[in-house]
Amino acid sequence: MDQEKLLYFKGLLEGTLHSLLEEAGKAANDMRQDRNGDFPDPTDRASLESDRNFLLRIKDRERKLIMKVKEALDRIDNGTFGICESCGKAISEKRLMARPVTTLCIECKTEGENQERKERLRGTKPRSTFPS
């Protein structure tokens, strides 16, 4: 991949990282402020807890994405960005545009998903209780 494209992806990833970290800071601040609320009604309290749990699940996903963005930035720095971890071929620019944190080319990702699907089907397939 040429230097201009690498700089483009680096800027894209750094922008994503900045906005994710900014949102995480806002969410943490909002949660601290909400903690001071007094809710004598159990239904209101349950609603707040439910909303908080949902927000925490979203933030956990964002935390994982932050880690992936940092890893992608490291790959740019060490020269392995855009190279499939599985087969070693170049990841298409179209795929990198759709998911800049990806580590697999579309062929390897598709193969991995097909394997997962087969394993899931094997694991959930009902077993016969009758002897063969």
What does the secondary structure layout of this molecule look like, with pairings?
Layout (H helix, E strand, L loop, with lengths): L2 H32 L7 H37 L14 H6 L7 H19 L8
Helix pairs in contact: 1-2
Report on the structure:
The longest helix has 37 residues, at 42-78. The termini are far apart. The radius of gyration is 22 Å and the shape is flat. The model is unreliable at 128-132 (pLDDT under 50). With 132 residues, it is mostly helical. It folds into 2 domains: 1-81, DksA, coiled-coil domain (Four Helix Bundle (Hemerythrin (Met), subunit A), Up-down Bundle), CATH 1.20.120.910; 82-124, no CATH class. The chain is built from 4 helices and no strands.
